Amino acid sequence: MIPISTKMRPQNLDEFMGQQHFLYKGSLLYNSIKNKTFGSAIFHGPSGTGKTTLARIIAAELDSDFHEINASTTGTKELKEILDRARLRFYGLESKSSYIYIDEFHRWNKLQQDSLLKALEEGVIKFIASTTENPYFAINNAVLSRVRNIYEFKRLDKEVIKTLLLRAANDKERGLGNLNIKYDDKAIDILAELSNGDARVALDTLGFVFENHQDGKPVSAEDISEAMQRKIGFYDRGDDKYDLLSALQKSIRGSDPDAAIYYFARLVDGGADIQMIGRRLLVIASEDIGMAYPSAISITHACVSAALMVGFPEAAINLAEAVILLASSPKSNRSVMAYYKAMSDIKHKEIDMIPDHIRDSHYKGARDKGIGKDYKYPHDFGGYVKQQYLPDNLHAENIRYYEPSENGSEANFKKFLDELRKKYGDN
Predict the structure, then answer these.
(1) Distance (Å, whole) CA 338 – CA 8
(2) What CATH code is assigned to 158-230?
(3) Element holding 163 (H helix, E strand)
């Protein structure tokens, strides 16, 4: 049986949904596809976000000789055969490039990836590689340097998933409309939430539920929960996960470990995943604890990493440690406030040149231009020497972005900076 996600796969750009940060009518990518000037590209991001779908749509729009392969099942021999056919086409009567779409490109080793280089340089092929890994780590630099466009696919938001689910539920040609199954709006809402931005998971779960629902009642939230094998605790109590995350952060910020651990427990009981909670804790470690206890971010990161490794239910133990640590630590938001102040000046004030003496001078002729001249190396002066670092306009204002507090470890940093300024002056 063909999965619903396959049946409902978008066939053209008008049907494609999501990835609005780089694909929309009038965008460079959209225009390059419509104008048939699209070159090679790398698509990277989570599963079920449209990488393969968009590659197939591009192939259809370009009306080119198209080969789709999976790096996990296609070896060097099969690739050589494809490249040989592409060369015959390119150097033959057609004189056209062939397109190759390579899914899970990160599974190829360096030699396999490099086997594409000559064909890319000659124009014999153009290709789209897709990967769930970070391309800057998983793909060779030689390949990256020959591909101009690298697009990050993000998880689909809840409203996009809901639209796709409703389209599938009511489509009588490709979808599930002919089954005449009734469903609660809440069921669709919960499925969109629990699918975690993965359209394939959402659609195939909907297909599984609809095709096996026989009691005559509308498909309910409980049916979705059973199919997903996930709790729907947020919805049982009317909790909103974002309210709980907000309450967790504000309780930690307020140094109330009891309230913090309570809201953390409600998040876990409600079905929040490790990534959701972990992301918030890592932000809190820098935003609310910051320089008052700089090690908090490292310990929190270790707790989140451990939680990801062990998984629930034991992961809650690791995360609870981070929650208690953060709530019980001294607090400072001075580092993030310093960033906001600096960013505000960048947006609203004139940007002056970097002082010549701290510009990069590691190239021939830099010194002749005065670049790097008169720079004083602090380590030659016992660790500190007074010199200008800010651009002229900000230096003249005696601007101060970072204003340390007296809380926790930050008091030591404040003392150090105050003593320097007292001894050597503000600038």
Answers:
(1) 49
(2) 1.10.8.60
(3) helix 158-170
Could you name the CATH architecture of 18-152? 3-Layer(aba) Sandwich (3.40)
According to CATH, where is 3.40.50.300 located in the chain?
18-152
In angstroms, the CA 390 to CA 411 distance is 24
Q: Cα separation of 171 and 189, whole Å? A: 18
**What is the number of alpha carbons within 13 Å of residue 195 lying toward its C-beta?**
30
**pLDDT reported for residue 86:** 93
Which residues of the chain are under the pLDDT cut of 70?
230-239, 427
What are the C-alpha distances in Å from 25 to residues 20, 33, 61, 273, 367?
9, 11, 15, 35, 49
Q: What is the per-residue DSSP string for 245-277?
A: HHHHHHHHHTT-HHHHHHHHHHHHHTT--HHHH
Phi-psi region of 231 (alpha: psi -120 to 50; beta: other; left: phi over 0): beta
Span 391-421, pLDDT tens digits? 999 999 999 999 999 999 999 999 999 999 9
Best CATH choice for the domain 350-424 from the list 1.10.3470, 3.30.530, 3.40.50, 1.10.3710: 1.10.3710
Residue pLDDT, tens place only, 233-287: 554 554 577 889 999 999 999 999 999 999 999 999 887 889 889 999 999 999 9
Q: Could you tell me which CATH class the domain 241-327 is placed in? A: mainly alpha
Residue 92, C-beta contacts closer than 8 angstroms, at least 6 positions apart: none
Give the residue range(s) of CATH 1.10.3710 domains in the chain: 350-424
Contact present, 336 and 290 (Cβ < 8 Å) = yes
- The pTM (predicted TM-score) of the whole model is 0.64
Give the Cα separation of 365 and 385 in Å (integer).
Answer: 26
The residues of the chain that CATH labels 1.10.8.60 are 158-230
Contact between 4 and 111 (Cβ < 8 Å)? no
